[in-house]
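Ligand-bound model needed. uracil.
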Amino acid sequence: MERKELRVNTFDHPLIQHKLTFIRDKRTGAKEFRELVGELSMLMAYEVTRDLPLEEVEVETPICAARTKVIAGKKLGVIPILRAGLGMVDGVIRLIPAAKVGHIGLYRDPETLQPVEYYCKLPSDLGERDLIVLDPMLATGGSASAAISFLKERGAQSIKFMCLIAAPEGVARVNADHPDVEIYAAALDERLNDHAYIVPGLGDAGDRLFGTR
Ligand code: PRP
Ligand code: URA
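Prediction:
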């Protein structure tokens, strides 16, 4: 059977690969884990926003007038999937402070592995914004795909998905359900295990961020 090519942007920057190793390490505690997730998110946001349009402006330097560039009045939105996506928000909005933040609460039912929605609060002008959906883990892809469908039902037109670790199964699912959505992952791992955890992965991102379990 022909294997469909996975469409995902991964990151080979040494700083990203280095920090990723430490969040994978089971000895890394919640404080350091949170800091590293924030740093990784900021480094990734730098690349994910690479195609933002620019416009020319005039500025007076202490020496003379100069024509330089600023980001054109593009509206951005950052949408973390609760709970683990929250860990990525600060890093991203430190780079793009004008972005509005919307929240979608989903958890993966441990029996059925299906996403269950429990919260939603989004910017009212969703359709006018370029959205970046945040979740550290793309495992089966059920949560990401449901969140993206949810945003589209509410008028979203432009969506990128950014995660730290993706499994091939999750990338394939989002590629199939949402071919218009570009995926960015710090790493593409090997596979899912029998409990749909990513191998080698980093374990349960939400629990490691918030010190639960
Ligand atoms: C984790 C993770 C994703 C989801 C990925 O969240 O943060 O949202 O699982 O799995 P999937 O690709 O198979 O849907 P979880 O459901 O554990 O909730 P939490 O963020 O509240 O810990
Ligand atoms: N959710 C996580 O937090 N980790 C995984 O490996 C899969 C789903």
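The mean pLDDT is 95.
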